[in-house]
Amino acid sequence: MAEQKRADYASTRPRADGAWVASVEDGSPAWEAGIEPGMRIVSVNGVEPRDLIDWRWEADGACCELEVFDPRDNTTTPCELWREPGQDWGIDFTDVLFDGIRTCVNACQFCFMAMLPPEARATLTLRDDDYRLSFLQGNFVTLTNVTDEEANRIVECGLSPMNVSIHAITPEVRRSLIGRRADRGIEVLERLLSGGIEVHAQIVLCPGINDGAELKATLDWVEARPGITSLAIVPLGYTKHSRRFHSSYSDDPEASRAVVRLLEPYQERARRTLGITRFQLSDEFYVDACLSVPPAETYDGYPQFYDGIGMLRSFLDEAELVSRERAEQIIALNRALVEKNLEVLLVCGEAARETIDVFCGLLSHEGRVRTYAIRNDYFGGDVNVTGLIVSEDLLAQLPRELSGSVVVLPEVMFNFDRLTLDGDTQGRILDVLRERGGLCTVSVPSPGAYLDALQEALLG
Questions:
Q1: Residue 282 in 3-state DSSP?
Q2: CB 141 within 8 A of CB 133
Q3: Does 100 have pLDDT greater than 60?
Q4: Where would you tag: which of 141, 238, 387, 408 has the fewest CB atoms within 10 A of its CB?
C-alpha cells in the first residue's frame, strides 16, 4: 500500500520569516560548526535563502560558507561547513519557506475555504498557492500568481514534478471557474512543459460547468501534452455553508457513471501507447457510480494517492495481503478479544465504511471488529471522508458507554499539532473516551497499521 501521511490542516504555530534552525543532528557538519537550534541562517555562499530550494541549491557541494545569526546576543558570525560525499549537513529548519507563503489570487467557484463554518479558526482560511509547496510538499497550485522570473527558476532548478490544477481549458470557462487571472496559469504551464518539467495535473469537476464537452476538450488538451504524466479528476465537494453548490456527483449516480465512461477511451489509449493509465478518477466517482474500484495496475504506482486516487484499491489489496501474511497475529488478536470480551470500533468517515468493512470481516469472523462511521454534521453537504472528521461529531455520535470497546481513531483527523478541524486536541478526546470506559488508540487508517495498533493495545 502507498505510504500514509498525516495531513497538516493549518498548523497553529506562527510562521517566522527567515531560515530558522529547528534541530541539528549530533556529529553532523552543522553540529561540529557550532550551529544550534534557534539560530538563523542569514546567507549561504553569499545568497540569502528564500526557501529550502535555495538552501539545497546553494549548499549542494562539499563545502558551503554560511552567515549565522544568534538571537541570544544578536550577533552574526561567518562559518564554513565541510562534509563527506553523501553526508547530510545535519540541519532541519522550522519551515520549508523562509520568506513567507504565496497566497491565492483566484476566486474559484468551488473553493472549499469559502464553504468553511464561520467559526473556523483563521489558519484554516489561509489560501496558499505557492509553486514551491507544489514541488516540496505536493500541494496543487494554479500557477496564476507565478512571475516570469519564478517560471524561469522552476525550469532552471528542475523543480519537477509539479502538481498543477487545470480544471478547464476553454478560456471563458476557466475565467468563470477560477477568475480573471485564469489565462496566466495556462501560459506558465505551457512554459514549464516546454522546459521539460513533469506535471501531475488535477481537475475539480463541477456538474454543468466543466464536465461534458468541456471535460472532453480539457482531456484532449492534456492528451496532446506528454509532459503531463498523470491527470486526477476529483468531484466537487460542498458543505452546508456553500452559497453556490447544493449537489454534486454524490447525489447523481448516473452522472458519475457518465464521467467514468467518458474517461475510458482516454485511459485505454494511454495504456496502449504509453503503458500507463495516465487519466485517473478519484475513488469517489466509483463509489458514487456504484462501481468497483479498478485493479492496482491501473493506478500507475499511485502518483496521486493523496488526491484520493486509488486509496480504496490500495486498502483492499493490503487487507488481503495482511490477512494472508499475518494470519497467526490475527488469530492471537481474536483470542485476546474473546478472552477479554472486547469489541473493536474502527472510526472512519461514511465514504470509507464499506471498504473498511471488508477488512473487518477478514480480521474477525465473529464480528468483534467493526467500523463506526461518523456522519459529518459539522461541515454537512456531501463531506464524508475520514480526514475531515471533527471532535464535535465524533463525541456526539460515539456511544456514551464504551465499556468493553476498543476505539481506534484515525490519525488523519488530526494535524501535526494533534488538533482536529474544529480545534479540539487529541489528548482531550482520548480522555473523554476513556472516561466513557473505552480503551482508546490512534492509528494510520491502513490494514497493517490497524493490526499493529490493536496488537499494541491488547497484547503489549
A1: coil
A2: yes
A3: yes
A4: 387
